[in-house]
Design a protein that fits this description.
The chain is globular. Strand 7 and strand 8 (about 210) form a beta hairpin. The protein contains seven helices and eleven strands. It starts with a helix and ends with a helix. It has helices at about 5-10, 40-75, 80-95, 95-100, 120-125, 215-230, 275-280; strands at about 105, 140-145, 150-155, 160-165, 170, 195, 200, 210, 235-240, 265, 270.
Length: about 280
């Protein structure tokens, strides 16, 4: 190759092959899509779970309080218990709101459950006074029908109408001595004036803690609905309480199914709570 041709080749511009164009890339900004809202079923499950957790906490608090009050009642001096029984029953028997009541529902006290004694009150209600101007009172007492919070209040005319159930608690037989069904207060044609109620703990705002079966709360709700439907005056709900059973406000946890009481009777006296109690007890 001649020198002149070699020089010409060396002075030619060198052209490099261009790299292949990159794959097409979108220059639009990325769009962050909002996740879809939870479905109704998802929201329902979340709400149900939260509600169930809340109820579990409430029931746990109730169990703990029941245990505490039971221990306090168990350790209560028998002499003091008897004194408080007498004081509470005396207050009830002397109260104008008791004397004026013609139809009453009351519990049959059970010593094993450490309930405030009601024997003197029941005896007074059932006592016949021939020639007395006082109208004889009509009494209904509880009878547990099953383990599903089903309880009835049946009329009795004597303490001899009571028999011991499977738990050795006195209650009325379903039929009287003549084989006739006893009158159920939910079937009665006249309203009840007064309920005397048991319980495990109470506070001064009317909250009541039962023993966990739900019998009284269920029955009271049913009776209140009946009274409302028949346009009757609501009965006065009065709980009888030993001193250790009254706790500070806010200690008793409640649900929408718990029924509050109108008043408490303790050895120290009557504690009216509701407007109805203040009005009818005139305290």
């Amino acid at each position: 190759m001649s020198r002149r041709l070699l020089v010409a080749l060396m002075t030619q511009p060198c052209t490099l092959a261009a790299p292949p164009p990159p794959a097409s890339i979108s220059r639009r900004p990325a769009i962050l899509r909002r996740p879809p809202p939870p479905s109704f079923s998802q929201r329902f499950i979340t709400m149900t779970t939260n509600n169930q957790d809340h109820l579990d906490d409430l029931f746990k608090q109730k169990r703990m309080l029941r245990t505490k009050v039971r221990k306090a009642l168990k350790s209560m001096d028998p002499v003091l218990r008897s004194q408080e029984d007498d004081a509470i029953q005396r207050i009830v028997l002397e109260a104008p709101w008791f004397k004026s009541s013609e139809r009453l529902c009351a519990y049959i006290s059970c010593a094993a459950l450490r309930e405030v004694d009601t024997s003197k009150v029941l005896g007074e209600i059932l006592k016949s006074k021939d020639g007395d101007v006082q109208v004889r009172k009509k009494l209904y007492v509880p009878r547990v029908e099953d383990k599903n919070s089903h309880m009835r209040m049946l009329n009795i005319s004597s303490l001899d109408d009571l028999v011991a159930n499977s738990m050795d608690i006195l209650e009325p037989a379903a039929v009287d001595a003549d084989g006739n069904e006893r009158e159920d207060v939910l079937q009665a044609s006249d309203p009840v004036d007064l309920f005397l109620l048991p319980g495990l703990a109470f506070d001064r705002s009317g909250r009541r803690l039962g023993r966990g079966g739900g019998y009284y709360d269920t029955f009271l709700r049913n009776y209140q609905e009946l009274a409302k439907a028949r346009n009757w005056k609501q009965p006065l709900l009065v709980a009888l309480s030993y001193s250790p059973q009254i706790v500070d406000e806010g200690v008793i946890s409640v649900t929408e199914h718990d029924v509050s009481v109108d008043a408490l009777v303790s050895p120290a006296g009557v504690i009216p709570i509701s407007t109805a109690a203040i009005d009818r007890m005139k305290l």
